[in-house]
Design brief:
Length: about 90
């Protein structure tokens, strides 16, 4: 439905017939980590996220999964070594 609280005229997944269904009944402004993201829209001189009504909540739990300006960092895990094969390789040397 179309937002009727803060972002008037913008499609919003949280808008219902009874008003905004998000906790607090309105979207919150973006946080510093959101700057530069492609999902940010500017409305009435303030910036809001098109996806999440509370961007600070997404960044507090490790990062926003929709962030277009941050690349996902893959953790390099050590390759698992079969101890039996490792001992046989060591015995050959």
């Amino acid at each position: 439905m179309v937002c009727q609280t803060i972002k008037t005229g913008v499609e919003c997944a949280f808008m219902t017939k009874n008003g905004c269904g998000f906790i607090g009944a309105s979207c919150l402004k973006i946080v510093e980590q959101c700057e530069g993201c492609g999902k940010v829209i500017e409305y009435s001189a303030d910036k809001y996220c098109m996806i999440y009504p509370n961007p600070a909540g997404k960044w507090s739990v490790g990062g926003c999964p929709q962030a277009t300006h941050k690349k996902a960092v893959k953790e390099e895990s050590a390759q698992k070594v079969n101890p039996l094969k490792a001992s046989k390789r060591a015995a050959k040397k």
